[in-house]
């Protein structure tokens, strides 16, 4: 349940920063120069934390179903979560922030500043992370689905499953 609590906290942080705070920014027509701190908080690392925690939870479930659950017992799951937090804050602090403005929503790759080209402002960390999320998480869920499907025949023959079906 550690990983699920961690994921819930990351999701709540992401909802506050990328949901509520972004709505406030968009409603008031703010941009980076009008409120640097609030725009910086909007581009914080909660998205990275949330998506990495989703992947970690799926990996945990895969390990449990393949009888490798010991990989996440004790300090190992805490270490994985700590690595996710370090990755998220490092990516959030040392890469260009995902800016927001009221016209173009989020600006991950182009600042839309007159006289500047999109090539001057790529947020490659965000681009690579989102590309990995789009490939890795569905792949992990596909593996989980295959494992569940493969192991489901065990439940058809068990007496416990037959007792549940009888009820």
From TrEMBL:
Keywords: Membrane, Transmembrane, Transmembrane helix. The chain crosses the membrane at residues 45-63, 75-94, 127-148. It holds the Pfam family 7TM_GPCR_Srt. The keyword Endoplasmic reticulum does not apply. This is G protein-coupled receptor. It comes from Pristionchus entomophagus.
């Amino acid at each position: 349940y550690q990983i699920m609590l961690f994921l819930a906290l990351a999701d709540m942080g992401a909802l506050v920063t990328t949901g509520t705070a972004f709505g406030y920014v968009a409603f008031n027509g703010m941009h980076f120069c009008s409120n640097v701190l609030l725009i910086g908080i909007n581009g914080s690392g909660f998205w990275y934390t949330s998506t990495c925690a989703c992947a970690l939870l799926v990996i945990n479930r895969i390990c449990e179903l393949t009888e490798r659950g010991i990989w996440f017992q004790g300090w190992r799951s805490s270490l994985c979560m700590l690595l996710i937090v370090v990755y998220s804050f490092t990516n959030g602090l040392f890469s260009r922030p995902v800016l927001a403005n009221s016209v173009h929503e989020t600006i991950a790759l182009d600042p839309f500043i007159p006289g500047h080209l999109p090539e001057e402002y790529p947020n490659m960390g965000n681009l690579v992370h989102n590309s990995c999320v789009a490939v890795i998480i569905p792949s992990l869920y596909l593996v989980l689905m295959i494992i569940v499907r493969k192991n489901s025949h065990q439940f058809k023959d068990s007496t416990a499953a037959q007792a549940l079906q009888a009820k």
